[in-house]
From TrEMBL:
Database matches in Gene3D superfamilies: Intergrase catalytic core
Alphabetically ordered keywords of this record: DNA recombination, Plasmid
Name of the molecule in the record: Tyr recombinase domain-containing protein
Species whose genome carries this gene: Sulfitobacter dubius
Organism ancestry: Bacteria, Pseudomonadati, Pseudomonadota, Alphaproteobacteria, Rhodobacterales
InterPro entries (alphabetical): DNA_brk_join_enz, Integrase-like_cat_sf
Length: 461
C-alpha cells in the first residue's frame, strides 16, 4: 500500500484493478505493467487508440528495445490495456506482437521426406528400388502398401544389414546369413525382441522391395525360432527409475501451469512453461503415443465441451495401426475432469495466443504457425521430466507408468489398463507395460511430491 500512495490517481486505479482481477500477481510484476502503461500514456494520453496506432506503438517498442525486451514490455502493456478496456484489446496486442516478433524460419520435413532421408544411407543398388517403392506408397498405394513409419524403420534396418555385409548387395538372402546376423546383434547386446524386429524388417525389404515375391523357408524358420525365443524372454525391461507414478507426472504438469500463471510476467518463457506442463498432464491423463499427442488440435481432435468434458477424436493416420486401416479407424474418448478442463482453459485463454493464431494444442516455439512435430514433442517431454523430476522419462514410457499404476492402484485395474492404452490384447499390456515393482519403489518419492499439492485429484488413472 505504501507504494500505491506514490502513484497518481490514474495509475493508482490501474493498480487497484490489477490487484482485484489478478491477486496472484506479485508486486514487481504490477510495477512493470504500470511502467509499460506510463510509456503508452505519455504518447496517447488516457484513451484507447486505433488499431493502427497501437500496432505502430508496438513496432516502435521492438525497434527501441530489441526483440526480447520489446516483447516483455509489450506483454506488460497488454495486461494493462486488458484490465482497462477488456480482453479483446489484450487479444489485439497479442496478435500484433505475434506478427511483429521476428521468427526463425524452419522448413518442416514430411514423414515421407524422413523415409527418403533414411533410404539415402542405403547402398546405391538398394537405394533406387527402395525410394521408388516409397514413392508408390505415397502417391499410388499398392496392395502391399506400408506406412512411412514402417518404411523408415525398414530402411534403417537394411542400412545396418548392409554394414554387416560390408556393402555387398548382389548375393541373395539366405537363412544361414540371417542366423549369422542374429548372432552378431545378440553379441552386440541387442535384446532378443530387438533382434527379431531387425531381422523381420530386413526380410520384408526383400519380399516387398528388393526381390518382390521372394520367399525363403529357411529365413522363415529363423524368424519363427526368434519369435519363440522372444516370447520366452519377454520384452526388454525398461530402466526401473523411469517408471514413476503417472499421477506424479500429472501433478507436476499442473504445478508448472500454476507456476506460469503467477510468474512475474506472461511472456514466451511463461507460455512455454505452461505448454510443457500441459503436455505432462495430458500425456498422463490420455496415454497416447507421441504422434497422436502431436496431432491434437483444439478445433478438431481435442475440444473443450461443457465443463468438465473434453472430447478427443483422432484420425487413423496418426495412430499405430495397419496402413490399410488408417482411413477408417479412429481413436475416440471422452475425458471428464474439472482440473484438466480448467488447465486447458487457462492455456487457451492466456498463453496459447502468444505462439500464433493457430489451433494446435502443442504449438512450436521455433516454427511459426506449426505444431510441435512428434520427435520434438518427445524431446520436450523428456527434457521437462528430467528437469522437474530429476530423471528422464521418455514420452512412450508414460504408457508404462499409467498401466502399472492402474494395475496396482485401481480396483480391477488389470481389466482397465488395456483400454487406457488402446490394446486389443490384454496380454500386450501385462507383458510389456506392467512394471509394478518399479512404481512401488518410487512410491515414497511420489508421496513426497504429492504432498506439495493440496488440491484433490479427480482424475482416475
Amino acid at each position: 500500500m505504501a507504494r500505491k500512495h506514490k502513484l497518481d490517481s490514474e495509475t493508482g486505479r490501474l493498480w487497484d484493478r490489477l490487484s482485484e482481477r489478478h491477486p496472484e500477481y506479485p508486486e514487481p510484476r504490477k510495477i512493470l505493467i504500470l511502467a509499460a502503461y506510463r510509456r503508452y500514456r505519455e504518447k496517447f494520453g488516457s484513451r484507447l487508440v486505433s488499431d493502427a496506432d497501437l500496432r505502430e506503438h508496438l513496432e516502435q517498442l521492438f525497434q527501441d528495445k530489441g526483440a526480447k525486451q520489446g516483447y516483455a514490455v509489450a506483454m506488460n502493456l497488454r495486461d494493462a490495456l486488458r484490465v482497462l478496456w477488456g480482453d479483446d484489446v489484450g487479444a489485439q496486442v497479442t496478435h500484433h506482437v505475434r506478427d511483429i516478433q521476428p521468427r526463425t524460419k524452419v522448413s518442416l520435413k514430411s514423414e515421407w521426406d524422413a523415409v527418403r532421408g533414411a533410404a539415402d544411407h542405403l547402398p546405391a543398388a538398394w537405394r533406387a528400388p527402395f525410394i521408388d517403392f516409397a514413392a508408390r506408397c505415397e502417391t499410388d498405394p499398392p496392395d502391399d502398401v506400408l506406412s512411412p513409419f514402417t518404411l523408415k524403420g525398414m530402411a534403417e534396418a537394411l542400412t545396418a544389414f548392409a554394414r554387416f555385409r560390408d556393402g555387398g548387395t548382389s548375393s541373395p538372402l539366405t537363412g544361414s546369413e540371417l542366423m549369422r546376423y542374429a548372432t552378431h546383434l545378440d553379441d552386440a547386446g541387442v535384446w532378443v525382441s530387438g533382434v527379431l524386429s531387425a531381422l523381420t524388417k530386413v526380410y520384408m525389404c526383400y519380399t516387398h522391395i528388393l526381390s518382390p515375391g521372394f520367399r525363403s523357408k529357411a529365413c522363415q524358420t529363423v524368424l519363427r525360432d526368434l519369435k519363440g525365443r522372444a516370447r520366452t524372454a519377454g520384452p526388454c525391461r525398461k530402466t526401473p527409475e523411469q517408471i514413476v507414478p503417472a499421477s506424479l507426472v500429472y501433478r507436476t504438469g499442473l504445478n508448472m501451469i500454476a507456476e506460469a500463471q503467477i510468474g512475474s510476467s506472461h511472456d514466451m518463457k511463461a507460455a512455454t512453461l505452461c505448454r510443457n506442463g500441459l503436455l505432462l498432464t495430458i500425456a498422463a491423463a490420455v496415454p497416447l503415443r507421441r504422434r497422436a499427442l502431436a496431432s491434437l488440435d483444439l478445433a478438431t481432435s481435442f475440444r473443450l465441451e461443457e465443463r468438465p468434458g473434453i472430447q478427443i477424436d483422432i484420425a487413423g493416420r496418426f495412430l499405430k495401426t495397419r496402413q490399410g486401416r488408417k482411413n477408417y479407424e479412429r481413436y475416440q474418448a471422452h475425458v471428464s475432469s474439472t482440473v484438466l478442463w480448467e488447465a486447458v482453459e487457462v492455456w487457451v485463454q492466456r498463453f496459447r495466443p502468444m505462439f500464433d493464431n493457430g489451433t494446435a494444442l502443442f504449438p512450436s516455439g521455433r516454427t511459426h504457425g506449426e505444431a510441435l512435430v512428434a520427435d520434438a514433442l518427445g524431446q520436450t517431454f523428456g527434457d521437462t521430466t528430467e528437469a522437474r523430476l530429476g530423471m528422464r522419462v521418455p514420452i512412450h514410457r508414460i504408457r508404462d507408468c499409467v498401466a502399472t499404476e492402474c494395475i496396482e492402484e485401481v480396483e480391477h485395474g488389470a481389466g482397465w489398463a488395456p483400454h487406457l492404452l488402446g490394446h486389443k490384447n490384454a496380454q500386450t499390456t501385462t507383458e510389456s507395460y506392467d512394471h509394478a515393482t518399479g512404481v512401488t519403489v518410487s512410491r515414497e518419492f511420489g508421496q513426497l511430491m504429492a504432498a506439495r499439492r493440496s488440491d484433490p485429484e479427480d482424475l482416475l488413472l
